[in-house]
């Protein structure tokens, strides 16, 4: 800083010194590219306003044009003053910034027309051309890229800054080229980041941390073999799934060119969803990815009960996965879950009263609704995924998670609060807790859960389990076993904690006797003398029948149920046997 340090600046040298002197990384962090809305940005705004506010006001009147444009360095200072400093001074006055952008663009155009951009340093070059980025048109950005090409052939220093300038210029150019897939007048700003091609991708991509992780995943799945000729990706357009898709198609040549197939579910709940679907389809086509878009027209979130909507939309999603996987011989469908999702899951599952064994909620490979789900980036932090996308130009949509939703409140309110209270380390603690829960579940699965579940027997009428195998176990293992019996073996709702506790107390009594027990209102259950729990399926004791129920045959085929052979016969009401049928009696295994 010159002799006027700390006071109001009056010279071009003070502008250049403030903006360009010092450590490059510190300049990036505090002045050039501070995080939007951060305390650092606010402090820089205040500092620039205090030091350069009066000088900026003078520049707005064109009073500095004649003297400052006479030399290349002071010309750069004038452009920086009008193009950069105005963004700090007038942070909350968009109209003011827009008016000053006109002046800055005029100066930048003159600067280039005079050929001055060829004779200044790379940092001065970048910020002298920045007004073209702030008032972009495709032609202007094409010219900027051409000037960057010219500098790259001769530069020896500041290559990182020029490379960043190229990437961000291409991103801005891509934003202008996003096709409008809606009706005239209905444009949607759907992209958080637009696509671009890194000029040194072939050299840099193999060095990125995500690449060896994906190589390990593809090798373990035998990608490109007869067992895995294609891999699916659930492509929402978010950064996680887009990065996985990009990695899959980029690495496919190393694995016998396996086919990449994307599935995009368009829920039609937001006005821009169809534009997103069209963009995903076009991006996939450009990258030689087969893309199947499935619009959900059967239900809408706004007009359907939440529970019904979630079930129906989930069924549609997984049915679509199954159909696509069968069509293209896909053994697994990739999803974009990462380490942060596991951490959110641990918090959410704890609050919902999830079992300790299911606290993690996610594993690298699992079966969900009959679909093999793969999560190749589950151990990766979100920052690494963002870094890959920003480095190699992988586009992705804006985060549309509603702030009022449970997930939105968790991300934007609860987790920042926990971080403020417990520090950054709390996230690692969540990950460790989830991992330990998974390891505990694996041990119990082998030592206890698996052997007990293997004894479970079932028929069309009921499922039965030997409770003597659980008598010595704590309550949470009863809950885990019976949860899996209800969900996985019967496809029905879980037994609530209170009746389950009553069942355990009953079975453990010294004077235990066989009896009926009410575990769920919708059905009946029976515990035998041998302490075998028989859970009848919900339709077995149905008391309300559809009004149009009728028999299409006079007799049914002979069926075997335990020691009995049963055949149903239609009896006319005047028949003498019909009177006998007016009295019903339930036969149990005790009879």
UniProtKB/TrEMBL annotation:
Keywords: ATP-binding, Ligase, Nucleotide-binding, tRNA processing. It catalyses: cytidine(34) in tRNA(Ile2) + L-lysine + ATP = lysidine(34) in tRNA(Ile2) + AMP + diphosphate + H(+). InterPro entries: DUF924, Rossmann-like_a/b/a_fold, TilS/TtcA_N, TPR-like_helical_dom_sf, tRNA_Ile_lys_synt, tRNA_Ile_lys_synt_N. Its EC number is 6.3.4.19. It is an enzyme of class 6 (ligase). GO terms for biological process: tRNA processing. Residues 232-403 form the tRNA(Ile)-lysidine/2-thiocytidine synthase N-terminal domain. It holds the Pfam family ATP_bind_3. GO terms for molecular function: ATP binding; tRNA(Ile)-lysidine synthase activity. HAMAP family: tRNA_Ile_lys_synt (MF_01161). This is tRNA(Ile)-lysidine synthetase. It comes from Aphanomyces astaci (Crayfish plague agent).
């Amino acid at each position: 800083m010159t002799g006027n340090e700390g006071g109001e600046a009056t010279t071009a040298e003070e502008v250049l010194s403030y903006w360009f002197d010092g450590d490059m990384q510190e300049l990036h962090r505090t002045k050039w590219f501070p995080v939007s809305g951060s305390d650092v940005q606010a402090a820089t705004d205040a500092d620039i306003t205090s030091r350069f506010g009066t000088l900026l006001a003078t520049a707005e009147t064109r009073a500095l044009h004649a003297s400052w444009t006479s030399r290349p360095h002071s010309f750069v200072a004038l452009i920086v003053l009008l193009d950069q400093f105005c963004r700090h001074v007038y942070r909350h006055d968009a109209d003011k910034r827009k008016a000053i952008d006109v002046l800055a663009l005029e100066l930048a155009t003159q600067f280039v027309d005079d050929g001055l951009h060829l004779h200044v340093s790379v940092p001065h070059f970048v910020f002298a051309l920045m007004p073209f980025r702030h008032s972009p048109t495709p032609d202007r950005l094409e010219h900027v890229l051409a000037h960057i090409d010219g500098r790259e052939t001769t530069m020896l220093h500041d290559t990182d800054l020029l490379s960043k300038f190229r990437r961000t210029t291409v991103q801005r150019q891509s934003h202008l080229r996003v096709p409008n897939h809606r009706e005239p007048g209905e444009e949607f700003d759907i992209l958080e980041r637009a696509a671009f091609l890194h000029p040194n991708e072939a050299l840099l991509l193999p060095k990125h941390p995500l690449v060896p992780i994906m190589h390990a995943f593809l090798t373990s799945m035998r990608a490109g073999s007869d067992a895995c000729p294609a891999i699916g990706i659930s492509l929402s357009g978010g950064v996680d799934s887009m990065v996985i898709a990009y990695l899959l198609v980029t690495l496919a040549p190393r694995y016998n060119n396996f086919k990449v197939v994307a599935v995009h579910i368009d829920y039609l709940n937001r006005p821009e969803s169809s534009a997103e679907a069209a963009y995903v389809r076009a991006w996939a086509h450009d990258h030689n990815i087969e893309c199947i878009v499935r619009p959900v027209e059967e239900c809408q979130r706004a007009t359907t009960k939440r529970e019904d909507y979630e079930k129906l939309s989930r069924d549609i999603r997984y049915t679509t996965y199954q159909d696509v996987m069968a069509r293209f011989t896909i053994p697994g469908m990739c999803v974009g879950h990462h380490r942060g999702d596991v951490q959110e899951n641990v918090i959410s599952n704890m609050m919902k009263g999830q079992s300790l064994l299911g606290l993690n909620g996610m594993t690298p490979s699992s079966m969900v609704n009959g679909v093999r789900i793969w999560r190749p980036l589950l151990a990766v932090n979100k920052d690494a995924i963002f870094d890959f996308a920003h480095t190699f130009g992988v586009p992705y949509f804006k985060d549309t998670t509603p702030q009022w939703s449970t997930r939105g409140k968790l991300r934007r309110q609860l987790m920042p609060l926990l971080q403020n209270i417990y520090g950054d380390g709390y996230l690692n603690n969540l990950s460790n807790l989830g991992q330990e829960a998974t390891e505990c579940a694996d041990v119990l699965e082998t030592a206890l859960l698996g052997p007990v579940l293997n004894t479970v027997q079932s028929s069309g009428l009921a499922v039965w389990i030997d409770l003597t195998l659980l008598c010595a176990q704590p309550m949470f293992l009863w809950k885990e076993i019976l949860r899996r019996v209800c969900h996985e073996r019967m496809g029905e709702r879980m037994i609530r904690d209170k009746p389950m506790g009553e069942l355990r107390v009953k079975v453990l009594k010294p004077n235990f006797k066989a009896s009926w027990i009410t575990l769920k209102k919708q059905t009946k259950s029976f515990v035998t003398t041998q302490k075998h729990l028989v859970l009848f399926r919900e339709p077995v004791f149905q008391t309300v029948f559809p009004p149009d129920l009728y028999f299409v045959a006079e007799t049914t085929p002979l069926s075997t149920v335990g020691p009995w052979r049963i055949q149903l016969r239609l009896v006319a009401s005047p028949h003498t046997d019909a009177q006998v049928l007016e009295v019903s009696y339930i036969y149990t295994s005790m009879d």
